[in-house]
Every structure is written in C-alpha cells, then in structure tokens.
Amino acid sequence: MKHRAVESYYRQEHLDFYLRYRSPFWAVTVDFDVTAVRDLARARGYPIYLNLCYFFVKAIQGLEDFRYRLLDGEVVLYEALHPGMTVPAPDGRFSFLYLDYHPDTERFNRAAMPKLEEASERVALGESRHRNYVFFTALPGVPFTSFVHASDDPGDGAPRVAFGRFSERADRAGRTFAPVGIQVNHAFIDGLMMGELVERVQAFYDDPR
Description:
three-stranded antiparallel β-sheet, single chain, alpha+beta
C-alpha cells in the first residue's frame, strides 16, 4: 500500500474549504455501456460484477486526482488503488471483500474468484486499515437514476460506486447498459475530473481485452 507525502497539494484551498462541511460529498449517475465487459466475463466464466469493478479500477489508476487521500491529517498520494466490494452473504445479507488490483485481467480474476466465494459464505464486515480503495456495491434489481452512499468522515477521499439493473435501449439493439452511481468528495474531486473519469471508464468498458 505504497504512498508518499505531498508537500504542496495543488488543491489545498479547495481541501480546506470543503473539509469544513459535514458532508462534502457529491454524486452523479451515468448509464455505461457494459456490453463488452459482460461478453468477456461470460466467455471466460468470470463474475460480471467483479469485472465491472475491476475495469473501473483499471481505468481510474491513470487519474492521479483520485489517488489522493488524507492520512493522519496529511495529504498523501497512493501509487495504486484497489477494489473493495460488498458481496452477497447468507440470508440476504452482505459481506465486505478487499481485493488486490493487478494490471493483468487473468491474474486478477484467478486470485479474486476464490476470495469472492469465501466472502459469500459468511457475514464479514471488517474494515480495512488502508485508504487506497475504490468501494463498490451492486443493486442488480434496481434501475436507479441516483444513488447516495453512507459516509461519516468528511475527509474520506475514497470514491464509492454502485451498479444498478442492466437494461437494453430501444435505439441501441443488442447493447447492455447499467446505471452507475459515482460518489466522490468535493475536497478532492471536481466536475472536470469526474468527466475525465467517465470517459476513461467507458473506454475501458468498450475495450476490456
């Protein structure tokens, strides 16, 4: 979980401004075309949800602004981000699962799938002590148009992402779309950066191979 201290954070004024808020978070919901990721996962026997998370994290790695965090009151920059997920657990509940990102899709899936199965066998709500995660959840039965995540720390810089129910558009026959709610902290992320993320995620979803 490598990181380095940032001596002069270029958005320090914005950080100081928004940390005064009890809830400095904001969110958007985007309809992503997930057809290619769905097809790749089905062809290789991988969980679709797992790979939607994976390619989202793969896309975000190259955007430095999403890798800043507050650690003991100090701004740090992490070298890489990793996926943290909610996964189904017995009796309609869920567990938390923390995975290690790897740039190779095959290696990531081979390592992640047994951990995913194990996490689904019981309820485990332990929180990681590390801060370099993107957190994911899924509501496969809900075609939502907006989504708000729970957060109680105004300095929390981790993006939070929710996937909704798949659908097909009448004007895009054969294409599968998913509403994706993305929540970020205004202390770290502005609209320009969000726009860059949306474009980058769709590019990775379009060409996951």
